[in-house]
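for the writeup, i need someone to sanity check this before i put it in the appendix. the sequnce is what the collaborator sent (i think, or maybe the updated version? ugh). structure was predicted straight from it, no edits. if anything looks off just tell me and ill rerun, i have time this weekend
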Amino acid sequence: MTTKYRRPDVTQEEDRVPWRGFLAITFAVVVIFVILAGWSWMILRGREAALRPAGRAPEYAREGFQPRGVVAGVDQRIFASQEGPGEGGIGLMLNRRKREELGRFGWVDRERGLVQIPIEDAMHLVVEEHR
């Protein structure tokens, strides 16, 4: 059936990949990528230089950078040991004192009749109430 529509003067072109065009496009894409990557790197460096006039990170820009563990704006005495190697700082002493307060009986407000009881006893009372 299809033989009557064939034309003898028309021939099929050979199947081949146009390597020159393919390589030229690939090369152009790589060159554009490298140019844009370099441009973005230069923009980033310029912005960083504008934000950091010293050229270094702010924590290292000071005369000799701070030792490890020093955090700006935090009172380090809370964590530091004052009595000796086995003792804690102010924060640990405060925690110890608060735990002692939670474990004893006392008056909170005598006029209103408010008392303080140990936390363990208070938790047991609350559990008993809700049963």
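The two ends are 93 Å apart (CA to CA). The first strand starts at residue 106 and ends at 109.
thx in advance!!
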